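Render this sequence as a predicted structure.
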Amino acid sequence: LKHLAQGNRSGSIAEVLGRRAVLGASAAMAGGMSNREAVVRAEFGNHSEIDRRVFASVLKELDPAAFDDKTIELIFKAAGVGGASRVSVDSLLGWVFDSDVGAGQTSTAGAPTEVLFCRHGETDWNLAHKLQGLTDIRLNATGHKQAQCIANAVKCRRLAAVWTSPLKRAYETASEIATATGLELCVDERLRERDLGVMEGRTGKEIQVEYPAVWAAWKVVTEEIPSEGRCEPAADVVARVEAALYDAAAAYPGQVVAMVAHGAVLRCLCRQTFGNASISTLSVGPGRTWQPVRLDDVSHMTEQPLKV
């Protein structure tokens, strides 16, 4: 990328995108990847993904007149990366060179993405049976060990990306996965925990005494929390989390992505409870669809985790 930004346009991204309309079948090689594609991919080194803002800035540096904000967004939209903050190098360049796919190669365009949706490891508040919500609690010693168990379970899955909630308990869990796989973390605000209103910082017993209707609704799982609970509506949680899922699927079609988030988020999405450090497998796409494959899997854990 530094090489590209310094203005060497030989086989550059700008050249490729500017001439995409004339690549056609003549650019393809019978053996697979074209020479032009090989040159461009080499510019990215070992980067599997890149921040969309960095990619945009490189294009603007190469040719400000040709690559204004509107044109760059059209490129992202056409490439199917959606609104993701980070984009897959393979997916983006795969779109650029879609006419270069040769015999024996299979395109992943339109293929569902496998999302390994992980709940964070244990915290002291989990241990005390306090609801956390947006309160930013770190992992405890057990939680760090659980995060390592998750990392060991997914590191052989050839992950394309690791996305995480910004809250410390999720970020610290995701960091173990990133370290084990050599991937950079993508922090996505949409994966944050549900705002639990008056329940935050209280145990179930305390909520039952002070807000009995709120606790009764919470225990049902599928019931909406009364307004006195001042919780984020479940539908709003589902909308933002699904938006993140669909952006990940658009950025990494046919690949595997790990996401680390929270119990109440998963609870809203799947309408059931989940244990600490559990892994739930979701099949996302094609399009704006998803379905559960396996939920609340803790078979990778050495000890049974809490389910609070």
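Summary. The beta strands are 49-51, 86-88, 113-119, 161-164, 185-187, 256-261, 279-284, 290-297. The mean pLDDT is 81.
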